[in-house]
Design goal:
The chain is about 60% helix and about 5% strand. The chain has 19 helices and four strands.
């Protein structure tokens, strides 16, 4: 098969070299973007009178027919072609003849593929944002239903202080909201059109690059033709943002796996998002959460691979850059599936309020509140901390919780303890007194939930 660049060569490319060099196996994902960019390029050439109106109509109609034939299954993308760009151009020439050869006027495959990949990444980033919003909606729904579902908060995986399920999920709401902000920044930074940069030094044709950018929904044309064809910063940024999304999903998955265990029993994952064992009939495994946790490393690998590929490349385009696609496509698909499945899992899981509250009462999670009680009685905090430390040691030796001790026993540790301590260190009181912004107290959380609902309704 003749190559787009074959005129300078006198020998056929070795088949193994051709296969090694070809990218159509994976860059056919850019089919729609390639057509979109070509249609805009042809419209700009016609505006600039590089193409006649008749030539433009023939090219536009030909490209529309190619899209229709592929989408209807009449035309299959042929893997014998080197890449999706050569396939589209060959089909255009097949349909409209010599006029099809004029489409590539003022354009190189370098700026063509740079455009296609940027269009595809922009679309994927918007899809990621939409999936994140759906996840945030699911989280907020849980939070609104569990404003007073008490549970232990942890540090070092040790019970620390009581909190609520709404407050705990709120931490992940903040993480995923930051992920959306990163995508917003990325989309603004990348939204400039490289088409018209040529191979690296622009072109002698009177292109209107601003018009092309406008047609394709960009904020304007890129400002340096060498950077235009060799820039993959936007893709590295996107993969970095995806890696952070997966990190947050993985942390969340780890907690769901723990909470789903027999030792915690905080929640039950719906059957639709669980699997069983081939040998142990009692098993119900949190496979979705485990796979999300596992696939996080896969997305990290895509980011690291592209960083390593780009680190030593001189200006401008190098064939190494073809390696930007396969791993990136895989990462985009992995994150999209992970977000969709994780959201479904969150929407359908059930929480055991009683068990979570029982767990919150274990492990002396009210010890800090006992110290705060003494501070309100005039005891310096550092002294109060020491007193309650001794109180916990006594409880450990006796095998009892603080609130289960008699007043006489409490007074043996400190005469500042009174009968009002029991109410002050109850689970309800421990949570409700935490009223600072960002704390788990219901009054503070209701304001946060209003802000979250307003945020989701506005974006």
């Amino acid at each position: 098969m003749a190559q787009l660049w074959g005129g300078r060569f006198t020998q056929e490319t070795d088949q193994m070299v051709f296969d090694f060099n070809a990218s159509i196996r994976f860059d056919q994902k850019l089919f729609r973007q390639d057509l979109e960019g070509s249609i805009a390029h042809a419209a700009m050439l016609a505006k600039q009178k590089v193409l006649t109106p008749e030539e433009h109509d023939a090219i536009r109609n030909g490209l529309a027919r190619i899209r229709e034939e592929v989408e209807n299954g009449v035309l299959a993308i042929d893997p014998a072609f080197e890449d999706i760009h050569s396939f589209v151009e060959a089909q255009l020439i097949r349909l409209i003849g010599e006029t099809g050869k004029k489409l590539h006027t003022g354009r190189s495959r370098n700026d063509q593929v740079a455009l296609d990949m940027r269009l595809y990444t922009r679309e994927q980033a918007r899809q990621t944002d939409s999936l994140l919003k759906e996840l945030l909606e699911a989280l907020l729904s849980v939070m609104e239903d569990h404003l007073e579902t008490y549970m232990p908060g942890f540090t070092h995986l040790q019970k620390a202080q009581p909190t609520t399920l709404a407050h705990h999920f709120g931490a992940y709401f903040e993480m995923f909201r930051r992920d959306r902000l990163r995508l917003k920044d990325l989309l603004a930074r990348m939204n400039y059109c490289p088409l018209g940069a040529g191979a690296l030094a622009g072109t002698t044709y009177p292109l209107d690059r601003a018009y092309t950018a406008f047609l394709l929904g960009f904020d304007g044309p890129t400002q340096n033709s060498m950077d235009s064809v060799s820039d993959r910063d936007y893709l590295i940024e996107y993969l970095s943002a995806l890696s952070l999304v997966m990190m947050h999903l993985s942390r969340f998955s780890e907690e769901i796996i723990l909470w789903n265990s027999n030792e915690y029993r905080f929640l039950e994952i719906a059957d639709a998002y669980s699997t069983g064992s081939s040998i142990m009939p009692q098993k119900k495994n949190p496979d979705v959460a485990e796979l999300v946790r596992g696939k996080t490393g896969r997305v990290y690998g895509s980011l690291m691979g592209l960083l390593v590929t780009m680190k030593g490349l001189p200006l401008a385009y190098n064939k190494d850059m073809q390696e930007d696609k396969e791993a990136a496509f895989d990462a985009m698909e992995t994150v999209a599936k992970s977000l969709a499945l994780f959201t479904g899992m969150i929407r359908t899981m059930r929480f055991d309020r009683r068990r979570m509250a029982e767990s919150a009462m274990e492990g002396f999670t009210n010890a800090t509140d006992a110290a705060d009680y003494l501070v309100r009685k005039g005891v310096p905090f550092r002294t109060a901390h020491e007193i309650v430390g001794k109180l916990v040691l006594y409880c450990l030796q006796k095998g009892a919780a603080i609130e289960k001790l008699s007043l006489e026993e409490l007074r043996e540790i400190s005469d500042r303890f009174g009968p009002d301590l029991y109410e002050d260190i109850s689970l309800k009181a421990c949570v409700e007194r935490r009223l600072t912004v960002g704390a788990p107290g219901p009054a503070a959380m209701r304001e946060v939930l209003r802000n979250y609902r307003s945020y989701l309704e506005g974006v």
